[in-house]
Amino acid sequence: MIEVSLKGMTGSFGLDASFSVPAQGVTAIWGPSGSGKTTLLRAIAGLTRLEGHVKIGTDIWQDGQGFVPVHKRRIGYVFQEASLLPHISVRGNLDFALKRNGGHTIDFDGLVDRLKLPPLLSRSVHKLSGGERQRVALARTLMSAPEILLMDEPLSSLDGEARAEIVPMIASLSRDTGLPVLYVSHDAYEVERLADRVLRMSKGRIIETPDTVFNANLDGLCEAQVRALAEAALKAGIKV
Ligand SMILES: Nc1ncnc2c1ncn2[C@@H]1O[C@H](COP(=O)(O)OP(=O)(O)OP(=O)(O)O)[C@@H](O)[C@H]1O
């Protein structure tokens, strides 16, 4: 299980978020702009220090007694804008991460194939499209052998075509490798297609978990958003 309970202030914003979800598949953290999704993800990563506990499977990253520093947590973090090393090739970026992954064995060719990167390996990163950059960023993150993937609006700067190409790659990656993904988004399309379960956020709190979604207050949601919630609940095995 992924068990999180975090509480505290960043500036004038208060976060008070608790949830417990299986450590497998894609868990979407979904909510409007300013609801605290990024703040929660950063606190789970240990980039922002709040009170509470964070447990990933058997690893305790934070509890009342201890706090594992961010560089000792096996996290893959993918942001909206991929920050690749600019003056080396795609392969150079991937090798850089591979050599620094603490000796973990990685199926380099398998990952490169999965993300359709073979034709790009010798390319310079500044000649990549936005979608290609994000696929390289994802591959590079996976080369570091994370035990969980934290993705913060990774597709929000891409056009529809690039998004439609990457969404199934993320879904199958999590399904086939067993790598759990916490996926921050405000986008119903992505949540509907990707999420095995949804945590809905508002004003710094988790207002719905997979277990409560059918009692959810759906006022103000558009049809696509309602469909996304229903789809994710069904995938999570919630009976209507
Ligand atoms: N370091 C900080 N200092 C002060 N306020 C902050 C800090 N980081 C975030 N905030 C504020 O906390 C609130 C939540 O921000 P956060 O980025 O977590 O929301 P979000 O749901 O991820 O939004 P978006 O979808 O727009 O990225 C916002 O009001 C933001 O201005």
From TrEMBL:
Any one GO MF annotation of this record: ATP hydrolysis activity
Record has Repeat as a keyword: no
Signal peptide segment: none
Alphabetical keyword list: ATP-binding, Nucleotide-binding
Domain ABC transporter: 4-228
One Pfam family named in its UniProt record: ABC_tran
SMART domains, sorted: AAA
InterPro entries: AAA+_ATPase (IPR003593), ABC_transporter-like_ATP-bd (IPR003439), ABC_transporter-like_CS (IPR017871), Molybdenum_import_ModC (IPR050334), P-loop_NTPase (IPR027417)
Protein name, UniProt field: Molybdate transport system ATP-binding protein
